[in-house]
Amino acid sequence: MAATDIARQVGEGCRTVPLAGHVGFDSLPDQLVNKSVSQGFSFNILCVGETGLGKSTLMDTLFNTKFEGEPATHTQPGVQLRSNTYDLQESNVGLKLTIVSTVGFGDQINKEDSYKPIVEFIDAQFEAYLQEELKIRRVLHAYHDSRIHACLYFIAPTGHSLKSLDLVTMKKLDSKVNIIPIIAKSDAISKSELTKFKIKITSELVSNGVQIYQFPTDDESVAEINGTMNAHLPFAVIGSTEELKIGNKMMKARQYPWGTVQVENEAHCDFVKLREMLIRVNMEDLREQTHSRHYELYRRCKLEEMGFKDTDPDSKPFSLQETYEAKRNEFLGELQKKEEEMRQMFVQRVKEKEAELKEAEKELHEKFDRLKKLHQDEKKKLEDKKKCLDDEVNAFKQRKTAAELLQSQGSQAGGSQTLKRDKEKKNNPWLCTE
């Protein structure tokens, strides 16, 4: 019997029975709280918006501290994501807060691909968690979860409509992260313009099918306040770390020539609403939605790409073992097919190489024969020339010998005539007188 069938039968036989006395498992919530507090919590915020909209200032205001960070410039060649993690402590609760900001977003002339680095960053965090989850030895309790739990999308206070960059980016992100749109520096436009701007933004988001995060209303304890706050989206916020004395109290505010804007005054902006919804009421729901909705969607798509399914073509449950075996057999078949293709390709290349070598050998033999014949012809020519030279040398020697012989004979003849004349003179003295 398959394990899935056994599990189904176990679940079908559940009955409710009364207890005769106190057992103690009603302390489980307290145990869970104590364990969670001892382990601490993590929360990751992604701030998306153009440079100069006050993203860093709002984070400082939200968490009532001063986060260290370098100011961004408008000269970035592309969009870069800068991540910083901080350990915060409030009462006995620890929070590992990660703030990710988009440096250079919207500063380029060509903004067509500005959303891609953001999507890739979010997917990279999902992939890192999935790889940790698929390990044989998992340590998820000690793993630093870097998945983005909330995306604060900063909208420029133009008072007209959303930019195409904002619509495209939010549409690409709505299936990957919980988007909370906020109008940054909302004190730049009047209240009437702000009301119309909110209505315009909501209308454009609905008409373009952008799914923003809705505060949950299924929990009765927060259903009323969350339902009211959903109607106030997008929040119009102001950030300031400067404290001014207003009346008898020091309050965070911004001083202008025409007056003072109080950050925590709900008549001036929605900062308090944002803080209530983001941190004090729905932080755990944001974490849960990230895991149960966005991460599960990413995980399902990745596992389906790898060939894992819940059911077979007959809609019957598929066990992991069966899926693994089917995928393994498919992989082995593909591997064997590729191995055969590579073997045939290798044999073909060997044959081609042998043909090339034989052709080269044939050419070398032909070249050798040509060179050998040429060498023989040259040798024959040299031998003929040598023979001619030897004949000429012999002829020259013969002529030389003949000339020397003639010269010798001539010298002997001349000496005989001189002796003859001397003898005649001696015999005839009158020849001397003459």
TrEMBL record:
Its main location: other. GO terms for cellular component: cell projection; cytoskeleton. InterPro entries: G_SEPTIN_dom, P-loop_NTPase, Septin. It is found in: Cell projection; Cytoplasm, Cytoskeleton. Residues 407-417 have a biased composition (Low complexity). The keyword GTP-binding applies. One of its GO terms (molecular function) is GTP binding. The keyword Cytoplasm applies. Residues 405-434 are annotated as: Disordered. Transmembrane segments: none annotated. Keywords: Cell projection, Coiled coil, Cytoplasm, Cytoskeleton, GTP-binding, Nucleotide-binding. PROSITE patterns: G_SEPTIN. Pfam families: Septin. Residues 39-305 form the Septin-type G domain. Signal peptide: none annotated. Residues 321-399 form a coiled coil. Septins polymerize into heterooligomeric protein complexes that form filaments. Filament-forming cytoskeletal GTPase. PANTHER family: SEPTIN (PTHR18884). Belongs to the TRAFAC class TrmE-Era-EngA-EngB-Septin-like GTPase superfamily. Septin GTPase family. This is Septin. It comes from Ailuropoda melanoleuca. The gene is SEPTIN6.
